[in-house]
Design a protein that fits this description.
Elements: H1 3-27, H2 32-57, H3 59-65, H4 69-91, H5 102-125, H6 131-159, H7 163-184
């Protein structure tokens, strides 16, 4: 597999993580650098780990997870997005930004990297050496996620009011997009 193809795959896989990072960048007011690095590191690590897992699992896992992976990603993103919207409405005022919990980070990391599992499976079927692609995928995801978080932070400063509702809506929309892509294809 050539370098351009690997880079295009990495960019494609990183788009969901990038969008989620923007949404979270809009909502966090404190400890931005620490939160952005944690989010980008987790997304990058999961985008590295999931293709390796898919590659190792080979064809047998695709039959098991392929039927519901899109539902899982949708459910996880809708849950986190709904929680953000509920929290914003329950407070009735703009939050200064919460703390990114380990549970939320884990849910988001899994939800945005499920498609990487399928890519790893395809690498296995195509007998592609896995080391270079997963390193590139992880680095690209980290960089785009951190950049997205920083961009989202700028947007959050601009919009200020009810940005958690917008961020939650974005996560739900990403989940719907993933679901529709799988159901309509």
């Amino acid at each position: 597999m050539d370098a351009a193809t690997i880079l295009l795959i990495a960019l494609g896989l990183a788009t969901d993580a990038f969008a989620v990072s923007i949404a979270h960048g809009m909502t966090y007011r404190e400890r931005r650098a620490k939160t952005g690095l944690a989010l980008a590191s987790s997304f990058g690590a999961f985008q590295t780990f999931m293709p390796m897992l898919g590659w190792l699992a080979g064809l047998s896992l695709i039959e098991v997870i392929g039927n519901f992976d899109h539902w899982l990603a949708f459910g996880l993103l809708a849950f986190v997005g709904g929680k953000m919207i509920y929290s914003a409405k329950a407070d009735g005022e703009e939050k200064k930004g919460g703390k990114l919990t380990a549970a939320t980070l884990l849910i988001l990391s899994v939800a945005t990297s499920i498609d990487a599992l399928a890519v790893g499976l395809s690498f296995s079927l195509l007998q592609v050496a896995i080391v270079i692609p997963v390193i590139v995928i992880g680095i690209v995801t980290f960089l785009l996620s951190f950049g997205g978080f920083c961009f989202g932070s700028k947007l959050g400063n601009f919009f200020k009011n009810k940005i958690q509702i917008v961020g939650g809506g974005v996560l739900i929309a990403i989940g719907i997009k993933i679901l529709l892509e799988h159901l309509l294809i």
